[in-house]
Amino acid sequence: MNPPVLEVSGLVKRYGDRTALQGIALAIAAGETVALLGPNGAGKSTLMQLLTGLFVPDAGRIRVLGHDLRHAAPRALAGLGVVFQQMALDLDLSVEANLRFHTDLHGLPRRLAQARIAEGLEAVGLTAEARRAVRTLSGGNRRKVELARALLHRPRLLLMDEATVGLDPLSRTQLLQLVAGLQAEHQMAVLWATHLVDEVAHASRVLILDRGVIRFDGSPADCCRQAAKPDLEAAFLELTRTPPAPRPAGLSQP
After folding, report:
1. Among 38, 124, 189, 216, which is 20 to 30 Å from 23 by CA?
2. What is the DSSP code string of 75-144?
3. Per-residue pLDDT of the chain (254 residues; tens, 9 = 90+)
């Protein structure tokens, strides 16, 4: 087993009287592709926001490459690449300018930055679009730019937060294939959050999150066996059909 690049324990997040995450624990090893599958409102986006440091948990610990996100955020976040659910590109800047801004944020020397940008654009098939304004690109190509940007600083863990929202079926398929190829090339760990079951067939592990609780953690085949269903979609529906068992009193308290 490869050493974990991400370790989460006892993670709790509340919004007023509503508990969005209830004592989440998980670990992802180097080179793993893990699908975070859950229905809308399951807590996937909240978990991603905690993992990227946008929100602070009410309880629990997040460690990236051994660095505690609460106490050593710059070191922890340096090991992450992120493609957010909402597009985070400057539409009026060129593709190249958007990527250069990211390399500047990470302090990459200009010569290395230019080499990484050229390599990234080639990997996603957008070399010819480098000087075009992002506004002129299709939705699928904008996502490819965001993926290239997320990898410029060579992260050990790539977070994909509902990254195919709004894409047509062909663009979705291309993005899935592209991430799989780049993951193998760079030996990254990937955590892919989605509510679309057909996107997780390539994953080595599946995490099913429902009502703030992880209902399953294992291989897609084991998920089908546990739910006694013939395919992953049916298993997912079965495992998220009924509420989780009540948690012991005090388990989700800070």
Report:
1. 189
2. HHHHTEEEE-SS--S-TTSBHHHHHHHHHHHTT--HHHHHHHHHHHHHHTT-GGGTTSBGGGS-HHHHHH
3. 577 999 999 999 999 999 999 999 999 998 899 999 999 889 999 999 999 999 999 999 999 999 999 999 999 999 999 998 888 899 999 999 999 999 999 999 999 999 999 999 998 999 999 999 999 999 999 999 999 999 999 999 999 998 888 788 888 888 888 888 888 888 899 999 988 888 887 788 999 999 999 999 999 999 999 999 999 999 999 999 866 555 544 444 43
For 48, half-sphere exposure in the C-beta direction (CA atoms, 13 angstrom radius) is 27
**What's the sign of the alpha-carbon dihedral 27, 32, 38, 40?**
positive
The Cα 158–Cα 240 span in angstroms is: 26
Return the bridge partners of 29, or none. 4
CA distance 43 to 46: 5
Q: Which of 174, 193, 202 minimizes the C-alpha distance to 38?
A: 193
Instruction: Tell how far CA 247 is from the center of its chain.
Output: 27
The beta-carbon contacts of 51-58 under 8 Å, at least 24 apart in sequence, are 51/6, 51/8, 51/80, 51/159, 51/191, 52/77, 52/80, 52/82, 52/159, 53/77, 55/13, 57/11, 57/12, 57/13, 57/21, 58/12, 58/13, 58/14, 58/254
Residue 113: CB atoms within 10 Å: 19
Cα 23 to Cα 136: distance, rounded to the nearest angstrom = 43
Among the listed residues 81, 136, 140, 134, the one whose alpha carbon sits nearest the alpha carbon of residue 105: 81
Is the C-alpha dihedral spanning 50, 56, 59, 64 positive or negative? positive
